Amino acid sequence: MTERNFFTMTALLANPDAYPNGADDFVEGQLFADEVFAAYDVAPEAGDPLLQFEVTQPVNNQSARISGYELAWQHFFGESGFGYQANFTIVDGDIGYDVGADPSLDQFALEGLSDSANIVFIYEKDGLSARVAYNWRDAFLSEVNRSVSSVRNPLFVDEYEQIDINVSYDFSEDLTVSMDIINLTEEGQRQYGRSYNNTFFVQELDRRFVLSARYNF
Fold first, then answer.
1. Average of pLDDT values for 65-69?
2. Which long-range contacts (CB under 8 A, 24 or more apart) does 82-85 make?
3. pLDDT band for position 148 (50/70/90)?
4. Inter-residue contact 182 to 207 (CB < 8 Å)
5. N-terminal to C-terminal alpha carbon distance within the chain
6. Which string of DSSP letters, residue by residue, matches 134-167?
7. Beta 160-170 vs 155-157: how paired, if at all?
């Protein structure tokens, strides 16, 4: 059953003079459908069912408050080329997830909220640029209802930290070569449910090396 076949069959049955054998005159294929389309149309008749449709839209039926603050500091030590950049963010919400609640009931909670911090040690002088970055994010609620059958479970992402290194050198005004080491300590990722031991997902990640060159013509 396709829209093409449905229209073709309807036009065929509505014109018995042209197709006296009714449904037996139907031929599968675009060529026959094109012939019917060119000769006949299908018009609505009294008693045809009305078009049925459903409209949905999100509704704000809960309220919550998010609060927090952020501290950022960047500094270079004179003309030495050495410096650092640090950032620390604390965020919290007034609605959390109750891991002891009835697992058959939906819960409303704020997702994705967690503290985070990063610090970058910088050297920038005479064409040489080097950065060592440490990034950390605390555990957070990723999903409110990870439904398995009729059971609603939360999905938490464990705290994560990563060290990245970038070194680049300008050989000339046009040529720059750089090396990136991503996830130096090979940190992985862990996701869990109502308890830390209720593990859903574990991922091991390797360190990655990226060597690149940029030349401006």
1. 94
2. 82/121, 82/122, 82/123, 83/121, 83/122, 83/123, 83/124, 84/119, 84/120, 84/121, 84/122, 85/119, 85/120, 85/122
3. low
4. yes
5. 59
6. EEEE--EEEES---BTTB---EEE--EEEEEEEE
7. unpaired
Average pLDDT over residues 186-191: 94
Cα 177 versus chain centre, distance: 32
**Cα(44)–Cα(1) distance, rounded to whole angstroms?**
20
Q: Using the structure block, give the residue that is written with the tokens 């479970």.
A: 153
The pair of structure tokens assigned to 148 is 């398995």
- Phi and psi, residue 136, nearest 5°: -140, 140
Global pTM exceeds 0.90: no
- Strand ranges for the chain from DSSP E: 66-76, 82-93, 116-125, 128-137, 140-143, 155-157, 160-170, 175-182, 189-192, 199-203, 208-215
Identify the DSSP state of 198. S
Q: Please count the residues of the chain.
A: 217
